[in-house]
Amino acid sequence: TALFDSLTEQKPDQLLELIAKFAADPRSGKVDLGVGVYRDETGRTPVMKAVKAAEHYLWETQESKSYIGPEGDPAFLRMLALEVFGERHAGKPVAGIQTPGGTGALRLAAELLSLDKRRKIWIGTPTWVNHQAIFASVGLQIGTYRFFDIGTQTALVDEMLTTLRNAAPGDAVLLQASCHNPTGAGLSRQNWQDIAAIIADKGLLPLFDSAYQGLGHGLVEDAAGMMSVIEAVGEAMVAVSCSKSFSLYRERTGAAYLFGDLQASLNKGVGNLASHARTSYSMPPAHGAAIVAAILQDPSRRQTWVDELNEMRIRITDIRRAAAEAFGQFRPELAGIGSQEGMFSLLPISPENARRLRAEHGIYMPDSGRINVAGMRVEDVASVAERIGPYLA
Ligand code: PMP
C-alpha cells in the first residue's frame, strides 16, 4: 500500500547534475560547456535590456493579474507569429496557443498527434534529450533515423530523405527549424526543398521545433527553411520557444501554432490544444508572454531586442570561428564547427573521456560530448581545445 515506496527511482537529468558539480568545483580554471543556456563573454546569462525595459513598462501599466484563459495572450500570439513566420506566413492561415515554454508546446502538439494510434512520429538522432520522452509520454509511436555523423561532422540528409520517403501517409516528422540541438548541423536551401517535396508528396505532417531563432544566421534566415516547407505542405505544426531568443528561460514562454488551409479547422485544432492545457496546467504563466508582447509591439524596445540578439549571434559566430581552427588542429573534420549554427556542437568523445575531462581538467560537458560553444570566451577557445584535444576519439 505504500505508494511512494513502490516507485522506481528516476535518474536525475545529467545536465542538472553537471550544474551542481560545476558549482561545487573549487578549481579556478574550470569551464562549463554543459548547460544549454547562452552566456556572454563574462560567463553570465543576463536579463536582456529589452526585457528589463518591458518589465519596467509592465510594472507601470499592468492593472490586473486576473486570469486570461488557456489560449493565453492574443497580442503575444499575434506579434510572435509575425516575428517567427513573417507578415506573409507562407500565405496560409495560422492559429496559435500560448504555452509554458517550447516544451509545453511540444507536449500539446504530441497530445494531438497521439489521437491516431497508427501514427508514428519520425525523429532524427541524436536530438534534444527530451524529444523522445515527450512523444513517448503520450503513447505516440516513435521511429528514428540517423541524422548526423559525429566522425565527419555532417548531416546525413540522404538517410533522412529515405526515411521520409518510406514513412506512411499521416505520419508526423519532427524537424528542428535551425541551430540543431545537439549537433549544430544546418540544412541547405536545397535540402529543405527536398524535404518539403517529400512531405507534401507523402502526405506527412511536419512538427517544427523552433527554439533558437536568431542565434544561427539571423531572425529571417533561421526561419527560411521551415517556411519553405510550410508553404509546400497541407498542414504543419510549430512549437516556438522564447527561452533562448528572449533569454526568458525560467519564465516558461512559448507557443504552439497550427498551419492549414481552413481557418475553421485551425480554430478547432487550437480548441483541442486548449482543452489539453485545461486538464494539465489550466493556463500558461503570463509574465514572459506579456514581456515578449511589450517588446514586439514597441519599435524602440523591439530594436533593442534585435540588436542584443544580433550581438549574441555574432559572439557565437566568433567563438565558432576560433573553435573551428583550434579543434581542427586535432581532427580536420572538427573545422566543421565553424560552419555549424547555434550554441551546440557534438564532439567525438567517449563517455569515459568526458568524465576524465571533468575530473582531471575541470572541463564540463555531458557524456554525449555535446558542447555549448557559448560556454567559452573567444580568447580561451585555443587553451580549452588544447586540453580537450588529447581526449577526442
Ligand atoms: N527544443 C529544443 C531543441 C531545445 O533545445 C529546448 C530547450 N533546451 C526546447 C525545445 C525547450 O525549451 P523551453 O521549454 O525551455 O522553452
UniProtKB/TrEMBL annotation:
<keyword id="KW-0032">Aminotransferase</keyword>
<dbReference type="InterPro" id="IPR004839">
    <property type="entry name" value="Aminotransferase_I/II_large"/>
</dbReference>
<dbReference type="GO" id="GO:0004838">
    <property type="term" value="F:L-tyrosine-2-oxoglutarate transaminase activity"/>
</dbReference>
<dbReference type="Pfam" id="PF00155">
    <property type="entry name" value="Aminotran_1_2"/>
</dbReference>
<dbReference type="GO" id="GO:0005829">
    <property type="term" value="C:cytosol"/>
</dbReference>
<dbReference type="InterPro" id="IPR000796">
    <property type="entry name" value="Asp_trans"/>
</dbReference>
<dbReference type="GO" id="GO:0030170">
    <property type="term" value="F:pyridoxal phosphate binding"/>
</dbReference>
<dbReference type="GO" id="GO:0033585">
    <property type="term" value="P:L-phenylalanine biosynthetic process from chorismate via phenylpyruvate"/>
</dbReference>
<dbReference type="InterPro" id="IPR015421">
    <property type="entry name" value="PyrdxlP-dep_Trfase_major"/>
</dbReference>
<protein>
    <submittedName>
        <fullName>Aminotransferase class I/II-fold pyridoxal phosphate-dependent enzyme</fullName>
    </submittedName>
</protein>
<keyword id="KW-0808">Transferase</keyword>
<comment type="similarity">
    <text>Belongs to the class-I pyridoxal-phosphate-dependent aminotransferase family.</text>
</comment>
<dbReference type="GO" id="GO:0042802">
    <property type="term" value="F:identical protein binding"/>
</dbReference>
<dbReference type="GO" id="GO:0004069">
    <property type="term" value="F:L-aspartate:2-oxoglutarate aminotransferase activity"/>
</dbReference>
<keyword id="KW-0663">Pyridoxal phosphate</keyword>
<dbReference type="InterPro" id="IPR015422">
    <property type="entry name" value="PyrdxlP-dep_Trfase_small"/>
</dbReference>
<feature type="domain" description="Aminotransferase class I/classII large">
    <location>
        <begin position="30"/>
        <end position="388"/>
    </location>
</feature>
<comment type="subunit">
    <text>Homodimer.</text>
</comment>
<dbReference type="InterPro" id="IPR015424">
    <property type="entry name" value="PyrdxlP-dep_Trfase"/>
</dbReference>
